[in-house]
């Protein structure tokens, strides 16, 4: 009897040991794979997670669509994707990237800090197709700018009839391009800049994160330029299946991400400084306000269509008007 009990105990302990050593697979998208800044940050996160009794195994992806697919199919317990793709899992956090919603890094910092605040835990959980997901962190990738192959396209009006590479799964980009009279050319994150570099499209939008690795200078050549006006702020979200992680994991993970914000924004600043000033095309105050109005109209329309979260739109407006109280929109309703 005693021998049987000891055998049962040994088997049970072995079972618990296997559970303790079980790894959570986390799919990580980065344009540069394991060499990218996002992946390196996630390596630090995985190391920190050991202190939360979580043993993480990272899987690098340079194909974002495949990372999303594998997460949906259960091959990964969590995934790190751009907010444009992760919005389907959590609209609140995914709406930080709304068109014109975050026109500066100062506002981006306010927005991310607010979203990851413990008071928003309920908003960071959502159920999609019977699966409960939670946002475990937000990474700053940086403001996205418009690049043109011909600097004669120096106003939005001159974009009429031109071709613009857009991410096919992002309704916001498609709507914005159509609004200015340009033709959206459906693309993926793996080839949208390539089309620009090869001259297949006249315009493209991208953050500084993509400038050097995707060799945007090839598309700019001697005649191209970058509108020195951010059209949106690009972030990435860590989304996890709550059933695959221990209770309280989300709070620990989000706290860790918040502590990385200074380093994240320093990285963005450093990357933006790699874009030569010769490419930058500065806009007049009047042009900037016209573009802000255009982006606002598109943002309102997309919020009504259910693409963006209305609560987040209100949060972003408060952040913008805290930083710039003289902004024309601060006296307007609608967000």
From TrEMBL:
Keywords for this protein: Signal
Name under which the protein is recorded: RND transporter
Keyword flag Signal: yes
Annotated Gene3D superfamilies: Bacterial extracellular solute-binding protein, family 7
Entries under InterPro entries matching the protein: AdeT1/2 (IPR045758), TRAP_DctP_sf (IPR038404)
One Pfam family recorded for the sequence: AdeT1_2
Membrane-traversing stretches: none
Signal peptide: 1-22
The keyword Magnesium is assigned to this record: no
């Amino acid at each position: 009897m005693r021998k049987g009990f000891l055998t049962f105990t040994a088997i049970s302990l072995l079972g618990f040991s296997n559970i303790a050593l079980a790894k959570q697979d986390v799919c990580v998208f980065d344009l540069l794979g394991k060499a990218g800044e996002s992946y390196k940050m996630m390596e630090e996160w995985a190391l920190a997670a050991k202190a939360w009794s979580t043993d993480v195994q990272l899987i690098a992806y340079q194909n974002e669509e495949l990372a999303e697919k594998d997460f949906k199919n259960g091959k990964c317990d969590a995934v790190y994707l751009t907010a444009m793709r992760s919005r389907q899992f959590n609209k609140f956090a995914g709406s930080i990237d709304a068109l014109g919603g975050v026109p500066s890094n100062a506002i981006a910092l306010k927005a991310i800090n607010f979203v990851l605040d413990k008071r928003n835990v309920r908003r960071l959980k959502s159920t999609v197709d019977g699966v409960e997901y939670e946002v475990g962190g937000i990474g700053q990738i940086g403001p996205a700018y418009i690049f043109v192959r011909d600097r004669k396209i120096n106003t939005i009006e001159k974009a009429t009839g031109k071709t613009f590479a857009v991410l096919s799964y992002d309704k916001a980009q498609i709507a914005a391009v159509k609004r200015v009279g340009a033709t959206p050319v459906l693309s993926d994150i793996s080839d949208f800049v390539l089309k620009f570099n090869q001259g297949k499209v006249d315009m493209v939008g991208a953050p500084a994160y993509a400038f050097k690795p995707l060799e945007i200078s090839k598309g700019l050549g001697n005649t191209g330029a970058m509108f020195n006006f951010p059209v949106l702020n690009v972030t990435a979200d860590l989304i996890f299946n709550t059933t695959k992680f221990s209770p309280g994991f989300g709070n620990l993970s989000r706290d860790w991400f918040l502590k990385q914000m200074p380093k994240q924004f320093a990285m963005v600043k450093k990357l933006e400084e790699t874009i030569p000033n010769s490419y930058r095309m500065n806009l007049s105050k009047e042009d900037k306000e016209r573009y802000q109005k255009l982006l606002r109209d598109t943002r309102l329309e997309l919020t009504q269509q259910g693409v963006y979260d209305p609560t987040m739109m209100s949060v972003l407006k408060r952040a913008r008007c805290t930083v710039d109280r003289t902004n024309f929109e601060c006296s307007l309703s609608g967000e």
